[in-house]
Amino acid sequence: MTTAVRKNDLSIPSKMKAWVLDGPEQLRLVEKPVPQPGLAEVLVRIDAVAICGTDVEIITKGLPAWIEGGLPFNKNFTPGHEYMGTVVKLGAGVDEYNIGDRVAVEIHAGCGRCERCRMGMYTSCLNYGLNYGDKNKGHRANGFTTDGGFTEYAVNHVNTLAHVPDGMSDEEATLIVTAGTAMYGLDALGGLVAGEGLVVTGPGPIGLMSVAVGKALGAQPVILTGTRDARLKLGTQLGADHVINIRSEDPVQAVKRITGGKGVQYVMECSGAPNSLNEAMDMVNRGGRICLAAFPGEPTPVDLAKLVRNNIYVYGIRGEGKSATHRAAALMAQKRFPAKLIHTHTFPLEELQTGFKYFRERIEDAIKVVIKVH
Amino acid sequence: MTTAVRKNDLSIPSKMKAWVLDGPEQLRLVEKPVPQPGLAEVLVRIDAVAICGTDVEIITKGLPAWIEGGLPFNKNFTPGHEYMGTVVKLGAGVDEYNIGDRVAVEIHAGCGRCERCRMGMYTSCLNYGLNYGDKNKGHRANGFTTDGGFTEYAVNHVNTLAHVPDGMSDEEATLIVTAGTAMYGLDALGGLVAGEGLVVTGPGPIGLMSVAVGKALGAQPVILTGTRDARLKLGTQLGADHVINIRSEDPVQAVKRITGGKGVQYVMECSGAPNSLNEAMDMVNRGGRICLAAFPGEPTPVDLAKLVRNNIYVYGIRGEGKSATHRAAALMAQKRFPAKLIHTHTFPLEELQTGFKYFRERIEDAIKVVIKVH
Amino acid sequence: MTTAVRKNDLSIPSKMKAWVLDGPEQLRLVEKPVPQPGLAEVLVRIDAVAICGTDVEIITKGLPAWIEGGLPFNKNFTPGHEYMGTVVKLGAGVDEYNIGDRVAVEIHAGCGRCERCRMGMYTSCLNYGLNYGDKNKGHRANGFTTDGGFTEYAVNHVNTLAHVPDGMSDEEATLIVTAGTAMYGLDALGGLVAGEGLVVTGPGPIGLMSVAVGKALGAQPVILTGTRDARLKLGTQLGADHVINIRSEDPVQAVKRITGGKGVQYVMECSGAPNSLNEAMDMVNRGGRICLAAFPGEPTPVDLAKLVRNNIYVYGIRGEGKSATHRAAALMAQKRFPAKLIHTHTFPLEELQTGFKYFRERIEDAIKVVIKVH
Amino acid sequence: MTTAVRKNDLSIPSKMKAWVLDGPEQLRLVEKPVPQPGLAEVLVRIDAVAICGTDVEIITKGLPAWIEGGLPFNKNFTPGHEYMGTVVKLGAGVDEYNIGDRVAVEIHAGCGRCERCRMGMYTSCLNYGLNYGDKNKGHRANGFTTDGGFTEYAVNHVNTLAHVPDGMSDEEATLIVTAGTAMYGLDALGGLVAGEGLVVTGPGPIGLMSVAVGKALGAQPVILTGTRDARLKLGTQLGADHVINIRSEDPVQAVKRITGGKGVQYVMECSGAPNSLNEAMDMVNRGGRICLAAFPGEPTPVDLAKLVRNNIYVYGIRGEGKSATHRAAALMAQKRFPAKLIHTHTFPLEELQTGFKYFRERIEDAIKVVIKVH
Question: How far does Cα D279 stand from its chain's mean position?
Fold first, then answer.
């Protein structure tokens, strides 16, 4: 059946194909019953799903929450969290979305009852992972603690949906949640970035979206650092005023050069490199702010004296909170930046393993590898 | 059966006595089945419930939401929202509270899925009142859109509960939600009131609790205005540094006199008097902030030019948001102010009508009239 | 001498032409000594100055601060506050600007020592107007309490300057401060407007700039209301998604229609119409926010009950605080909106009176009338 | 002359005794002319000055700003920044204080014109140290970049003064700035600490004041960690609900034990111990916040993954910003906590060196050593 035909077919089969995780690196394509949406949930027919670095972590090491909790590697779980699709069935009480609506997803549906959810900090839900059995607090993290998107259909709480604008391709729509994470980071930094200097360190998907969203909100200058010229060139296309290849120039010196010695107000750290926080502290001026959207694998020496002496605030961000996904979707609907540039490859559901290979090995400079399902 | 005996009896009967509203001013004591708690809910045995000015409005005019929605006067509804009691049964998934815990209640459980709830603004839930039938969004406003506290047992969502500290009487605990509203108002004003001047206009229960909470947080000076010396004296006992009887002295002039002409930073308007906002704008200095916790019955002339020219911010507050009730309960547990002073009268459940009469006619200077149920 | 020649001439004469105010409506062109910049000040050669509605007020009624203070009409004062020009001399300690820099101005230099200035709220300076004699607190409000821009040269504190980007015309640069006021209003509303609904009421210069800045920051939809189609058309060109002529359609109903009954999150009130705040409260959803950038001449009835019941916050704004002018200038440098569209007429300094006539009588649909000085 | 007599003598001599720093560890008592206050300044007769850990750093290593700037050790400089005294002369334009007023001091007077000062962040002034010669930006940091308090008289900008309440001893008043730093840290954490859990790590003067201010604002529980029982006992007297001697119990485990496994919302890190930030991240719950008021001497390994995964915010604080000193003084005037408990020793000006010896060697458990000057 061609995709074109399937796009208009909103009928729901009883069974579906789904990748499930049996153990580290053991993904298997199986047939599963199509799940049913409950109260405040919808059934989404998955049209496209992108591969994220966290998916690789989950597939190789298991779920972070499982690991921290000392739980065994989860079996029969379907990963994948950067998906979009079409609403095909409404659970009880849903009138926020209609059948046929195209939607992108957020990862986190908070429990709605812990201290953090009551403050609106649903990505920091204290009942994370407690959505099974008699500990059911209603939390969901799609592709993390509940089945995700490397399949044909998925159940989503209405809190994890954002409308996809008309005219946006399925592939581009998988990037809404990535842009949402960048937006959430800029919110943490205060949100008022127009006319302020912003350095983004690391030109991965979140870094590139941080450049795009920061520029869309008027940051000036927007400076991107990285090691690969192809990625930096993309950064320029997405709105960076300056790019720095740190193999050619010390990034701190480059930022000082560009800003006439003054430094910038904000840094979005998206590289996870061990010395990034120290460098970021040298890039911001006194009173500046740094958002950490990435992190090194091991504890790394940090010059805390500089942080205190310069009144620097550091914001770790988890996921895409504060409805940032909705705001990011609005900027993309207004065509403020060509997000689709970071989509490089597409494979069908059956070829997910190939997609992962391209993504992990950066074959043909792969950035966002999208699995097209319907 | 004596109260003492009943206090230790956590068994749940099948029927209970409840006041229900048949029409304007038509309260009737009936027998009803004891309700059952659902997911994320508990059953509270009501030990005490206070009468609030809004109860009088509901009983005489009907529910605000009903009126705005053009709905008929609701029948068979049990009002009462300032109650406290003992948890006697846990619904599914509840481990935040245990059977036997003493709890005070908040009014609002937001839907958890609208734009405002996702921001943590659950008292401004956009699905207010939508908790029935196929429009079930899960919203609850105890004593407003769901059955309240003028009865023996009530179901509460865990989001509407706060622990009552040991050693606090049932009667005092009914005031936690009132103090929570005052705390929410001070939050809206920025929360950092230590050393800042605060005027509270109107010595009703919320005004008096605003004095108490404001002083507990270090506001200086705290100035209370009103018309009755007995109430103002209470204000002094609760922490006011200065009280102004507006029958003897112009309140704006008095504030200027007390502050050496400078005015204050903050006003909590709790009187609902028609000219209060204009006077508040003359009490704050340039850049000051005003919280409206009360309002006149009719539109009233406001000098908006003053608001703009002096960069004044005005915050209307709805209910007791931002978990303010928990913070207020903490201050009361720490015995920061003698809230119990505003409790003046107690009646048993059967004499609710007498309680209302005392409250409405301010018989014997009644302020908080409490119905003791168990 | 032609303007082209004079543009490159940064020499400073000893005398200059200046309009001074003798009494209500009595503007007179005189010769004055060119003033000298002091510590932290520069001398600006005025290249262009726009006429603002407040100039009309000052010329007809006197300075607001004078009137409130019961002072006599100020004589020999030069009004005009929306000016831009070229730095021609640096006072002591100035290295933020160089001779030859093109600059636009803000009105307010706070005293730097009152409670509000210490908080960064310099437009709400408590020492407003205290910049003379032994009460010298260092406050300046250009064109209000110190000589302004209807002249050839003016002294400015460095805090009242913003760089004018290369390639921007003098005429357009006079609009930076107007855009700065709009930006300050959006800041007061929280600043995070991307994807949120924004109604701007009143298509005067601040209203039109609010449309432009709001759209540049991603607000969606941006709705502009007004009475004149030509102004509304300009609004569309500046970024409004919808315009409403309130002579044809009730604005509240129109906002409900456009937003599917939901209302918007934010209203910027820029009309000063008597019922605007009441209408704004019906345009925002529960928990919404309203900024007042204009006001009616007389106290006007306001339905405060709605404000409290719907948890609405109202922000009066004074001037262009929080360095909003710098952020607005950045957006304009990035060419995010064609601000110059609202510039309609130009006159030389000698014809200021004609300029005022065009502005006041809206001759040829005049919006921004600019006096070109150099 | 006895102190009592000197207290009432506001006459100003032409010469005064002052300690000056010739080189590392080379403090010398000399005679200097009494300085004269300029615009917006007053002359303070120093009545008492406390020794701070930073004084020891300055005396042994030189000024931080000098060192960072590669400047030589400053000669003829008078250190000392925790002082209080009596206003004896007013500079031009001063009416905020009167002769005879008792005042405590803040360290930082910002330039009032940089980006940070304009935001109200004057302790992060970008013109720090630029208060000499033709780079005069008006910045002052008493005892750091301008002469401080180990002398008889000092000039202070009005922005660095706070009124000392009647009835407070000179010795206690030297602690106002310490309490102000604690208050500024709690502000950075959000300020709304009532009912929230707060851990303070390190029972030095700032740690002990953080306990006191946190408890005064209603934090619950307040937990103090440290290594010396005498200090921890003081913490209890100042308001700590629990103290943990980390030599007897692992502090993270202890916090979990006390909070029923939940952790706290806030940590004030005041110890500077190398592993403190990592421990703090284990003490807060997801979404918690940490203020760093101290720091280790060397870069130290930090587990940044935890910071990102748990959405933790870390706030470095510099000095005592946001007028926190005024708010702290207000709490002390209201006698909310017995700050004077941390004052342990007093010496006359001539015996400053002995005072330093007591402070550095913690002789007789010295905490705050005060030099009584008048």
Answer: 24
Any idea what DSSP says for residue A72?
P
Mapped onto helix, strand or coil, the DSSP state of residue D264 is: strand
Among candidate residues B84, B56, B66, the one with its CA nearest the CA of residue B132 = B66
Question: ipTM score of the complex?
Answer: 0.96
Max Cα distance, chain C (Å): 64
> Are B195 and D331 an interchain contact pair (Cβ–Cβ within 8 Å)?
yes
Please compute the mean of the pLDDT values over residues B279-300 and round it to a whole number. 97
- With b for 16 or more beta-carbon neighbours within 10 A and e for fewer, the A46-70 pattern comes to bbbbbbbebbeebbeebbbbbeeee
Q: Which residues of A touch B112 (CB under 8 A)?
A: 112-113, 117, 159
* Residue B361, token pair as written in the block: 């006619």
Contacts of B252 (CB under 8 A, 6+ apart): B279, B282, B283
**Secondary structure letter of residue A244 according to DSSP:** E
Question: Is C305 in a helix, a strand, or coil?
Answer: helix
Please choose, from the candidates A100, B118, B134, B115, the residue with its C-alpha nearest in 3D space to the C-alpha of residue C262. Answer: B115
Residues with Cβ within 8 Å of D214's Cβ and at least 6 positions away in sequence, in order, are D182, D186, D193, D198, D200, D222, D239, D268
Return contacts of D95-101, CB within 8 angstroms, 24+ apart. Answer: D95/C135, D96/C113, D96/D158, D96/D161, D97/D42, D97/D158, D97/D161, D97/D163, D99/D10, D100/D10, D101/D163
- Give all chains having 3 or more CB-to-CB distances under 8 Å with chain D: A, B, C
- Give the tokens for residue A84: 């979009």
Q: How far is D357 from chain A (nearest CA, A)?
A: 26
Nearest-Cα residue of chain C relative to residue B318: C311
Do strands D153-157 and D41-50 pair parallel, antiparallel, or not at all (unpaired)? antiparallel
Helix (H) or strand (E) holding A314: strand A313-316
> SS3 sequence, D166-216?
CCCCHHHHCCHHHHHHHHHHHHHCCCCCCCCCEEEECCCHHHHHHHHHHHH
Q: Is the pTM of this model over 0.90?
A: yes
Report the SS3 class of residue A113. coil
d(CA A25, CA A352): 13
Model pLDDT for residues A12-55, shown as the tens digit of each residue: 999 999 999 988 889 999 999 999 999 999 999 999 999 999 99
pLDDT of residue A76: 81
State the Cα–Cα distance between residues D180 and D173, nearest whole angstrom. Answer: 11
Distance CA D3, CA B219 (A): 35
C220: nearest CB among A183, A218, A330: A330
pLDDT score at B371: 98
How many other CB atoms are found less than 10 A from the CB of residue D71?
12
C372 DSSP β-pair partners:
C48, C348
Q: What is the pLDDT of residues C2-31, one digit of tens each?
A: 454 567 789 999 999 999 998 888 999 999
